[in-house]
Amino acid sequence: MTVFYQTKITDVGSEVSELIEGGILILYAVGAPPELAEVSVLHDVQAGPTADVPPVGAVLRIGNVSAKLTAVGELAWKKVADIGHVVINFDGADTAGRPGELCASPVDSATLLGALVSGAEIVIETAA
Questions:
Q1: How far apart are CA 110 and CA 128, in angstroms?
Q2: N or C: which end of the chain has fewer CB within 10 A?
Q3: DSSP label of 9
Q4: What is the model's pTM?
Q5: How far apart are CA 42 and CA 58, in angstroms?
Q6: Could you read off the pLDDT tens digit of each residue along the chain, which spans 128 residues?
Q7: Beta 65-72 vs 3-12: how paired, if at all?
């Protein structure tokens, strides 16, 4: 199994729940500007990102919630590497609508919101 990225949630912005209801999750590494922190899940990178971009079908695990990557925008992995930022769209699309976006299979928004707690792990890895 290859772990492409592993990080821990440090804080959840006050407006994250509204975005989750629409199937969008924004991650930003600790130190994001306050106006971005409000809409983001802040995290502290534990491992990665790898030089290799995770493939479609890789598993995205957030706490006890799992989804599969369905598309990777052309700039998404570079943004993860450069500033720890990415937009994850849980729409199951096979093509990313924006270059800095990861698309993943749909998940239950209430379950995902419940998994977004300080200390929870976010991992992108190959399927077991």
A1: 26
A2: C
A3: E
A4: 0.94
A5: 22
A6: 899 999 999 999 999 999 999 999 999 998 888 889 999 999 999 999 999 999 999 999 999 999 999 999 999 999 999 889 999 999 999 999 999 999 999 999 999 999 999 999 999 999 76
A7: unpaired
